[in-house]
Amino acid sequence: MANIKDGLSAATKELSAFKKFISRGNVIDMAVGVIIGGAFGKIVTSLVNDIIMPLIGLALGKIDFASLMFKIGETEIKYGAFIQTVVDFLIVAFCIFVVIQIFEKFKKKEAEKPEEPPAIVKSDEAILLEEIRDLLKNK
Predict the structure, then answer these.
(1) Rounded distance, CA 119 to CA 125, Å?
(2) Among 41, 20, 135, CA closest to 96
(3) Could you give the count of Cα atoms lying within 13 Å of 121 in the half-sphere of its Cβ?
(4) 13 vs 3, which has greater pLDDT?
């Protein structure tokens, strides 16, 4: 019976630790980034496969890169698909580069902003002296 209680206690601790970990903001931000990155990857793949590579193929004499391959025995070496994947990678890398450049510019602008001086906290004596000064001024 004690083993069951110890096991439940350990499981509850682990569940609590996991709940604390998952509720931290950066884990959720990372998950959103992965999901958006996956969707963005599909868009770039479509851009490469459906627009860029057909245009390159047309410019090079109606070459379909997806079908470019050679055989060694029964094995097919699909170098056309590899070329498409390289173009896909280069576009994704360029997009990430641009996003990072924009992010760095914003970060630099934030760093260049002058900090506001801290608010001056007046002591009770200073407030009293200012009131006396103002009263004397009005006489």
Answers:
(1) 17
(2) 41
(3) 1
(4) 13
Task: Give the angle subtended at the CA of 25 by the CAs of 22 and 31, to the nearest 5°.
Answer: 70
* Amino acid letter, residue 119: A
60-66, Cβ contacts within 8 angstroms, sequence gap of 24 or more: none
* pLDDT tens-digit map of 39-80: 888 888 888 888 888 888 888 887 777 788 989 999 999 988
Q: Which domains does the chain have, with CATH numbers?
A: 2-106 (1.10.1200.120)
Supply the pTM of this predicted model. 0.52
Contacts 24+ apart (CB under 8 A), 47-50: 47/91, 48/84, 48/87, 48/88, 48/91, 49/84, 49/88
Give helix 25-47 / helix 2-22 axis angle, nearest 10°.
Answer: 60
Give the SS3 label for residue 121: coil
**62 vs 53: CA distance, rounded Å:** 10
Q: pLDDT grade, residue 25 (50/70/90)?
A: low
The pair of structure tokens assigned to 115 is: 């900090």
